[in-house]
Every structure is written in C-alpha cells, then in structure tokens.
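pasting for ref
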Amino acid sequence: GVKPLYWSRLSGGGILFASEIKALFASGLVAPAVNEEAVSTYLAHGYVPAPDTLFRGISKLPPGCLLKADAAGIVTVERYWRAAAAPNLPSEPTDVAEHLTALLRDSIRLQLRSDVPLGALLSGGLDSGLMVALAATELDRPLNTYTVRFDGAPYDEGPLARAVAERYATNHTVMDLPAGLAAKHLPKLAWFCEEPINDPALLPNFLIEELLGNDIKVALNGTGGDELFAGYGRYFRLPVERRYLLLPEWLRRGIIEPLVGLASPMTSWQLARAGKFDHCRGDYLHDHATHFPPPMRAVIGNDRTFPIAAQARHFTEFKGPPQSAALYADLNTYLPEDLLTLLDRTSMAASVEGRVPFLDHRLVEAALAVPPAIRTPGGRQKALERKMAKRFLPEALLTAPKQGFASPVPAWLEAGLVPLARRILTRPQTLDRGWWTEQGIERLLARPRRHGFRVYTLLMLELAVRIHVEGERLGSAPDTGLEAFADAV
C-alpha cells in the first residue's frame, strides 16, 4: 500500500493499469465519470477506500494484493500479504522496547541506502524525532532535516524539532507558511492527487517537499508511527464518555439523548457513540474520524445512503485484542488511503522519493503482537514508543502532548477562503448534483472555526470533479488558484 496502482477492465477485453488515474484517462479508453456511490464513501471517510475510486470504471488495488489477468480475460485480485501479529515476542516491557527499537533501526539502516542526496522530514513529534535520531547515528555525515511552521496554527512545532536537530547536529531548514497560500495551491494539489483526500496536511507536505527537492531526492518520513504505537485518541475511550456510560442505560437512551437531540443532534449523536467502544469498536473508530456523521449530513442536505465503515470490516477480521484490531483497521484503511497517498502525491510532485521506515513489515507485525498493557500502560498514548525513545530524545519532546502534522484550516478560511469557497460550492451546476445545498454551505461557512475541515472536505471533492471529470483534464497542473474556479460558470 505504499505506492498506488489503478486499473480498469476494458469492455472489449483486456485491462489498463497505471500508478496514476490521469494515465488511464489519457489512453482515451476510459471515459471520466463520477462514481456516485464513492461520493458518499468519501464524505463518510475523507477518502475512498480500495477497491473503489471516485471515478466510475476505475479500481485501485488494495494493500498487500496483486492483480492477475489471464489470456481469457479473467481478472482476479489476490492477497499475498496480510499483517499479522508476530510470534515469539519478548514478554517483558523493556525487552519489547529493545526488540522494536532494533527492528526500527535496521529498517532505517536499509532505507538510508541511496545514491542520491537524502534527508528527513522532522516535526516536533515523537515519530519523526525518533526516526531522525536513529538515522543520524547511522550516518557518517550530517543529515538534512526539514520542518514546516504555519501562520495561525494553534501550536508551533519548531522549538521541539530544533531541539532534536541541535542534539544530532543536522543541517536543519525551517519553512514558514503564510495562511494565504491555500487559495493559490489547492487546485494544483487536486490535480496531483486525482482522488480527493480531506487531509489538510497536503499543503504543508507539498510545499516542504518542493523546498527539499532543491537539495535532496530521497526523504525519510515518520508516517506509520501512530498506527503502530496507538497515537490517536480514537484508540481509547474518552474520559467524558467513560463518565457518561456510568449512568443507567434507561436514563441515557430514554431521557438524556432525546432531550439533547432537540437542541443539538450532533451532541446527541456523540453521546450515543460512546457505547460503541465495547460492542462495535470498528464503528467507534470510524465515528471518531468522520467529519460528516448523520447530523452533519443533514446540515448540508445530503440524504443519500452512506456505506458501512471501512474500519469496521478490517477490525472484525483481526484475531487479537480490540486495541490491536483497531491499529490493524487503520493500517488497512486510513494509513494507505490517506497518509500514504498524501505522501506519494506530494513527494512525487517534487520528484522526491518518500520512504517510510516505520512500515517495514517486520516492525508492523511485531507492533501488532504487543499486548495493550505494554503498548499503552494506564491508557497512555504511545507509552511504549516513548520508552523506546527515552535515551534518544529530549525530555521536553517525550512529555509533550501529541500534535498532528495538520494545517490551520480555520486560519485559511479567515485569510480569504470563505468567499471563494462560497462561490465554488454554491455554483448552480455544483448544486444540481444534489450532494449538498446552498443553505447547508452557508451554515458551514458561518462558523469557520467549527466547520473548517468540513468546508475543506467539500472543496477538495469539488475541485477533483471540476478538474478531472468536467474540466479539460490538463496535461499539467493548473497554475491558477481558486479564484479561477470561483469565476468559472
């Protein structure tokens, strides 16, 4: 799943396949059209899970699978690898930490092999910090490292990243991103990505890859650490949910949720979601990640049937503790469909090869075998990885709360995106598709701090359709910003 593969079955026999959807369209044998069911899937997940894509008649190969086609035209998809818990893991926490550190170090050693200049993306987080620390100790020369900072962001990763860079004497570069850049670059990102991804980290990743592309051609990336070491809040029951579930069910279901629903359907849905942690953990994972649960779909006027959560299917197929099954579900959905696609598209756009040491298959299988009591003792996120990193990283980073590599979408909206988004999303031809209503868009735009990610989700979908289906399907990325799409009729 590190690299994508798209394919299409031809009506006259045979198949087409390529690493980009644009190549299939360029053949003239596949007509660009929207897969309407995939629109609902995208709104539910923020991406379109394999084997489907946003485009009718085009499939993508799921992770760990191969495509077979014989002379008779019979096409089959077969799985050649499925992540499973490794056998014979050490039983003591200290030994587990040493074992996983050794696997990560060996993966990094292999990933450092390169005939061209190499560097690493360094945020202020645990994953990239540990990766850079281990990489720097394997090299006989300073490692190039790169950090991005945003105007209007709720936190600044710069100081923690700088502390790691200074400790390991890297050649460190910091890139500051003004909030106004989003309007200029989003159409270009939609062209490179083809399918929409509602991850606003696209922009900072794209710009930092462009910057480092001037110096290096291979970049190490810390992607995968959260999925291996339980770095997301959705792997744990929220404290407020734990307290709420202490109330009698008759009180919760019969009185509180109906009354709260009268004032706030969204809050009522969030309360009802709490009970899924024990009984439908796969759905719980999805519910904590989606930006368009049923109450928000009602807000935008979308009454279409939404799909079963992709995480739920993978959660049930893993044989092991629920927390490990949750990691497995994200390793098969969110990781390849969002994070790895984002990495591939932004790095390849800058002619940089992105490498992901955390996703060495040996490390993945060992991490899945770790009991939750060792992985997250006391319910502490990434406790095992912090133990692994203790002798390599500054104390301030080890004790810092997790901060995602995300962009300040509300700041983008306040920097000028609101009027552009309104004109793009309420265009008559856009509203005629029936995916949302003008009133729904106005309700989202009225509260950019609360609904910024939702506006961004719809904007990336609209740009994907306008560029790849309704537009001229340009042979190169558009050099115009959102203004051109806002003015087009």
